[in-house]
Amino acid sequence: TPPGPGTAPAPPSEREGTTLRALLRPHGTLADLCTGRANSFGAVRLLLAVAVVVSHVYPLGWGRLDPLWNWSGHQTDFGKSAVLGFFALSGFMITGSAAALSPLRFAWHRALRILPGLWGSLLVCALALVPLLYFFQHGSLTGFWNRPDGPLSYLSSLGSTSPAAGWDISGVLAEGIRRSTNFDRSLNGALWSLKYEILCYALAGLLAALGLLRGRLVVPALALALWLMIAGGLADLPSPGSPLVGPGVAVPVLGQLSGYLLVHLGFVFLLGAGLRLWADRIPVDDRLALAAGIVLAGTLYWRGYPVLGHPALVYLLFWAAARLPRRFQAVGRRHDYSYGVYIYGFPVEQAAALLGFARFGVLGFFAAAMTATLALAAFSWHVVEEPAMRLRNWAPGPRGSAEGARPAKAGS
Residue 324 falls within a domain, yes or no? Predict the structure, then answer.
């Protein structure tokens, strides 16, 4: 409404302040906005999975890490930061599940969510994708099946959480790498994170079984302890140019793991878990999101990313899950392709590299790989993951179910 006669218009600074207050304001708590179904976690997870695919375009197509590696002073790249985001979101969701379920039921749910899709991807790669690449290289499948490093050897890893990082099948990758700039000899190098994720699941289940999630103080205390290790340099890599693995730590069942990754991934997982436990006290505030964005950008540019950038990134992801427009809430609600994108993206990009798609440039390479990856992710969800998740409530008994069958929910 225009000002009436004799009414002076508000000064520009006052009008701008009013606009900023309207744009940057609190909207409630995480408990209000993120613990039900009206959130955009599915969209955020899918975005993180796509970021991993984008990150792998560069090493698999051109033999170098993605641009964020140099922009951040060798602190991180898009893929590694996306994995951090996955662990934070997982901590939030898994903690709620661990607190609500018995230990055995919790373990059953986690196994159904991870293992069928993983095993399906190993089968598809060993019995379909790699044979096609071998045929492309040699003109026939002669000698493919019976080699010591052939598909049967690869499939022997079905009982583990992830195949050995450097596994090839019948020399397909070694042959292809000789003709390209790709320096990664693993068929699916993205699977390295699954062991760490399973270890975090075990930690959440243990805390729930011991009743330590009810008091809400143990998880923040553990997160603080890991943060102090990071801030004090106790979890640094041996040298600035070292790969992001660091000295190994032997963990029963899971084998040799990186101490550096255990600390850093465990920290963001516990941050997510702490946000779940204190969701009724954590504000979803645009002003905090703006501050977190500034901190994140500053730590990437001036260093300090693990100490202050990780918490800033975590807050931004949860803020986005709460504040993205409502249309994004439908992403992943019924059909969650994010896990499929994660487990199929790397082998598809390996295939694209070996087939010479680098000649189409970064955008062409990514478009081709992403199209094939989404198709396989949809196959994985509809044929493997969702049917497996329908068994969530199964238990031995006359009817085979402890609680009655219910439809699977994406991401559960």
Answer: yes
The pair of three-digit structure tokens given for residue 312, joined into one six-digit string: 């800033």
Tokens, residue 296: 């994140």
- How far apart (Å, rounded) are the C-alpha atoms in residues 135 and 169? 13
Structure tokens at 319: 């803020």
d(CA 398, CA 392): 17
pLDDT in tens, 137-163: 999 999 899 888 888 888 876 545 454
Residue 139 lies in a domain: yes
Instruction: Give 102's DSSP letter.
Output: -
Q: What's the total number of domains in the chain?
A: 1
In a domain, 14, yes or no: no
**88 assigned to some structural domain:** yes
User: For the whole prediction, is pTM greater than 0.85?
Assistant: yes
Beta strands in 209-310 (DSSP E): 248-251, 255-258, 283-285
Distance between CA atoms of residues 301 and 95, nearest Å: 33
400 near 381, Cβ under 8 Å? no
pLDDT of 256:
80
Residue 148: give the domain boundaries. Answer: 29-155+190-382
